[in-house]
Amino acid sequence: MTRLRTLALLIVVAHWIVAIWHLFLAASVLPAPNNSVSWLAVVLLTLLHGGVSIALWKISDKLIGLVSIIFFLAALSADLYEHFLHASGNNVFMVAPGDWTAWFNASVFILLALEILGCSLGVLSLGGRTRRHSTPEPNSNLPKQGHTSLSSSQSNALMQTKLQRRDG
């Protein structure tokens, strides 16, 4: 298993744990009738995180960055809207003060940090892959070790190099 795949899976699992914890904290800080945990939300979150984990486990290394970006960007968008932009009881600036308010706010910021980390991992994996494959290798016209036959362009380049060394 590649390091990238392992990191992506760890971030998804950590995000799932914090998201479930966050649902229970939200039930503690929200007023009635929203003060109970929706088991449908728990099941859907579990299925979604499980599906993304399976996808990250099975897909090729080239697609891990793309899946990470899509998943964590969607979660980041929902998190930012629900907890910072939308005027509701879930907004960190409007949560009613109470015993669980600090924990609720902490879970929002932990989720936000995990989502930014997941997006960054996806961007870095896509960016790193592009850089590595776009730079030409030095002496790309010359044969690599282990190759016994030369292509016509490699043969011509080798002959030109030998002629230049002899004449120069």
From the structure above, extract its key features:
elongated, 2 domains, 73% helix
Quick summary:
This protein is mostly helical and about 170 residues long.
Mean pLDDT: 84
**Radius of gyration, Cα only, in angstroms?**
26 Å
| Structural class by sheet pairing and helices | mainly alpha
End-to-end distance? 52 Å
Counted by DSSP, the helix tally is 5
Number of domains: 2
Write the H/E string, N to C.
Answer: HHHHH
Give a verbal description of the structure:
The chain has 168 residues and is mostly helical. It has 2 domains: 3-134, no CATH class; 140-168. It has 5 helices and no strands. The protein has helices at 3-29, 39-58, 61-85, 101-134, 152-167. α1 (3-29) packs antiparallel against α2 (39-58) and α3 (61-85) runs antiparallel to α4. The radius of gyration is 26 Å and the shape is elongated. The mean pLDDT is 84.
Strand and helix map with partners:
Elements: H1 3-29, H2 39-58, H3 61-85, H4 101-134, H5 152-167
